[in-house]
Amino acid sequence: MTQAIYQGFILSRQQYSSKHSEGITLCYWLASDHGPIKVVIENQQAVFFISQEQQQHAQQLLDSARISVNFKTIEMSHFNGKACVACYFNNTSSLYKARTLFENTITIYEGDIRHSDRFLMERFIRGGVWVTGDVRQKNGFLLIQNAKLKANTDYTPKLKSLSLDIECDGEGVLFSIGLVGNGLDCVLMIGEPHNHSEQINIDWCLDELELLTKLHTYLSSNDPDIIIGWNVIEFDFTVLNARAEALGISLKLGRDSQPININTGHYTRLTLPGRCVVDGIDTLKNATYHFDNYSLGNIAEKVLGEAKLIQSDNRLGEIVRQFNEDKLTLAAYNRQDCILVNRIFTKLNLYEFAIVRTQLTGLELERMGGSVAAFTNLYLPLLHRSGYVAPNLGDHGLSFDSPGGYVMDSLPGLYKNILVLDFKSLYPSIMRTFCIDPLGLIKGLNAPNDAIQGFNNAVFSRSEHHLPKLIEYLTKTRQNAKDTNQPMLSQAIKIIMNSLYGVLGSKGCRFYDPRLSSSITLRGHEIMQTTRKWMEELGYSVIYGDTDSIFVKVDESLTAQCCNEIGNELMTHINHQWERHIAKHFNLKSYLEIEFETHYSPFFMPTIRDKKTGSKKRYVGKIVKGDESKIVFKGMETVRSDWTEFAQEFQKELFEALFDSQFEIAQLDEIVKDYTKRLFAGEFDQKLVYKKRLGRNLNDYEKNIPPHVQAVKKHKAEHPDFEVRRGQIIEYVYAMSGAEIFNGKNALNYPLYQQRQLVPISAAIFDALVIDNKKNNLGQLFLPDF
To answer: Which of 216-220, 423-427, 657-661 comes out lowest in average pLDDT?
Structure first.
């Protein structure tokens, strides 16, 4: 047994009670330059906190239940000022029993934090680690016992990745498993061997039992660090686990032949010791990529320009047919899905994003969402070092809600020159400038004389806080990422910074306090209103504002160069104004920074449908840069997935005409008439398709059945073999008999499309132009005749 120091990156984390140890055993698997490392730390104790004044009562309850506990006096207190004591337990079972025992009589703090997470959190370990201990070489990995871990912020792993995809019937009975990556390219297929092209490596299996056995063999041999797929946790591994249980076998797909473990709740949590499983859909969303739907077929088409091999509306039915009649084609389909996932991960840098997100937050690579958990990871150890335990939900005792972002009333119409100025990271900048912070609030309330005034009786300490320093660090790190061309790191930091307010404004976060969140949003309201006032004092008209953006009208006769010069002058002026204002009224340094973002020429602000008042969060503008121009749609039908391709094309053509330098209002009337004529002539039949995801299983829809479900049920009544599953995108149309599955031969209800697509889109433009006509005397308007 030797002693050495290794560096690695955490792939999985576990905690369990060991037969050979009195306390809790922690197990961390690492990816390293030396291969997989299994790190074992024994004799650990799980902990939660209670107030000192309840210690005696707690001891009596635990003694009566024969639950062993070790009370430890600590220099920590609750936000209410009451001193706390730590309760240590030698196993998680005792901790869980104590939590239940105390449920109605003793208030527990931080009782929901797993010790395997707390151990890393308190050491500021976020993915990368230094590890030392007693080292032994095992079969395929290093084992380090009696280990000591230290944060390693510089280590970035080179992960071995494998893409996995299964095919099965509607009941989850397995047909095949595709495995592509890390030098492996094969499909495991149930059935008799077929002669087939050498381009696809098919390993034929007698039945599901042999299929799962070979899966274990391939994973053990290939030994990936990370397994990727599409809905791979919620579907593929959940089905694999269910089939293994049905067959009475243990699915030992982890390293060292460890079994997988799946827990379901708010989300499905999969533990695969020694490996991590990362889902493409979750990672795309975490990285804030936006698509109309996240099906593999749609993402592959949008990102790679490639299509899945099965395009049938009845995809499940076609998979079943191919398994029964054409297994070679099914193998090609299964393999291609694996390849598409690999290519998407590579092209969109999703591996890199997952790694830097873990390095910044300490969250597991595979963790979906997790903004609250990320905040806890970052903030809790800092809070402990300041002498406080974290509060529980609702400890503040306040019932009011904080308002959302400030949205100004808009002035609808068509404009020649609109400048948009944005406050850069407004909410984080407010938090940094005005020292808005959970600890800062408590310290400020305890010493209000020199504190910073917030809203709703909040006051914040000028010196004792953590979030302003954290935001400063993230801001500098992001700028460095930009300067050194690290786009994924920059994007991950941006997401974390933007989530800070959302977490503090979430009632599901233990640090939520409406005084905190309202001091951010109401300060934002004040900043937007004051900025508008300063703009108007300079003689400019503000036509709209939304949370951190302000839309300023400038003279129609100005050239693009003049508009850009004005935008930059306004940016400089407003920033100086805020520096002076905050120094004078708060004796603070301003970190607010407004940027001149866009010159729209022209720009259109619609009315609210069927009203004369201006819309919010909906507009269209044209941006010209050099010889190139593009029309930007915000919140309009052309960027919404619940409108057809026909409606989107119609709206685009209307705005291309509206924004043309030779525009005449009569052109819009002609476009409406032309689209109406071509609609009824059947020219757009292929573009009248609605697409909607099936959010539940078909049988779960009993009341208020939406159109896409009506279409599926109608089709299934006529075609009993038609199969769909939850999550599938349904393509349907409105026929004369109601909603129907699109088949290319439907008898379409053109008058309905006219009223639901053409009329609302064109009316939104004409309504705003009528108002604009009255304001600006544009001349005769020709309204469409439907």
So the answer is: 657-661
Look at residue 785 and tell me whether its pLDDT is greater than 90: no
Residues 226 and 114 in one domain: no
The residue among 313, 348, 383 that closes a domain is 348
State the DSSP string of 770-785. HHHHHHH---------
CA distance 374 to 376: 5
CATH number at residue 586: 3.90.1600.10
Number of Cβ within a 10 Å radius of residue 309: 17
Amino acid at 70: N
Characterize 153-177 residue by residue with b for buried, 16 or more Cβ atoms within 10 angstroms of its Cβ, and e for exposed. Answer: eebebebbbbbbbbbbeeeeebbbb
Residues of the domain holding 586: 393-601
Q: Please indicate, yes or no, whether residues 492 and 561 belong to a single structural domain of this protein.
A: yes
Which pLDDT score, from 0 to 100, does residue 782 have?
A: 36
Q: At 290, list the tokens.
A: 């936006």
Q: Which residues of 505-528 are buried (b: 16+ CB within 10 A; e: fewer)?
A: beeebbbbbbbbbbbbbbbbbebb
Give per-residue pLDDT as tens, 127-177: 999 999 999 999 999 999 999 999 999 999 999 999 999 999 988 999 999
Name the domain boundary from 100, 128, 151.
Answer: 151
Q: What is the pLDDT of residue 308?
A: 81
Number of domains in the chain: 4
Domain match, 706 and 672 both = yes
Sheet with 161-168: list strands edge to edge: 202-205, 184-190, 174-181, 161-168, 226-229, 276-279
**462-520 pLDDT, tens per residue?**
999 999 999 999 999 999 999 999 999 999 999 899 888 889 888 889 999 999 999 99
**Residue 307: which CATH number?**
3.30.420.10
> With 90 as the cut, is the pLDDT of residue 660 above it?
no
Per-residue pLDDT tens digits for 184-204 = 999 999 999 887 666 789 999
Are 85 and 165 within one domain? no
Which residues are bridge partners to 132 per DSSP? 5, 148
Tell me, what amino acid is at 228?
I
Q: Which parts of 388-458 are beta strand (E)?
A: 413-415, 418-423, 452-453
The residue type of 234 is E
Is 84 within the bounds of a domain?
A: yes
Residue 568: is it exposed, middle or buried by C-beta count within 10 angstroms (0-12/13-18/19+)?
middle
pLDDT in tens, 254-300: 999 999 998 877 778 899 999 999 999 999 999 988 887 888 988 99
Q: What is the DSSP string of 103-141?
A: TTTS--BSTT--HHHHHHHTTT--SEEEEEEEEEE-SSS
For residues 311 and 419, state if they share a domain: no
In a domain, 318, yes or no: yes
Pair (308, 400) in one structural domain: no
Helix (H, G, I), strand (E, B) or coil at 585: helix
What is the amino acid identity at position 706?
A: P
Q: Assess if residue 483 is contained within a domain.
A: yes
Cβ neighbours of residue 380 closer than 8 Å, sequence gap 6 or more: 110, 113, 121, 390
Hey, is 29 helix, strand or coil?
Answer: strand
Q: Is the peptide bond before 602 cis (omega within 30 degrees of 0)?
A: yes
What is the CB neighbour count within 10 angstroms for residue 61?
17
Asked if residues 478 and 490 have their Cβ atoms less than 8 Å apart, the reply is yes
Say which CATH number the domain at 102 has: 2.40.50.590
pLDDT of 399: 86
Is 382 contained in some domain?
no
Whether residue 201 sits in one domain with residue 100: no
Residue 247 has pLDDT above 60, yes or no: yes
Do residues 23 and 116 share a domain? yes
**pLDDT attached to residue 615:** 79
List strands edge to edge, sheet with 738-741. 690-693, 729-735, 738-741
Q: For 505-550, what is each residue's pLDDT tens digit?
A: 888 899 999 999 999 999 999 999 999 999 999 999 999 999 999 9
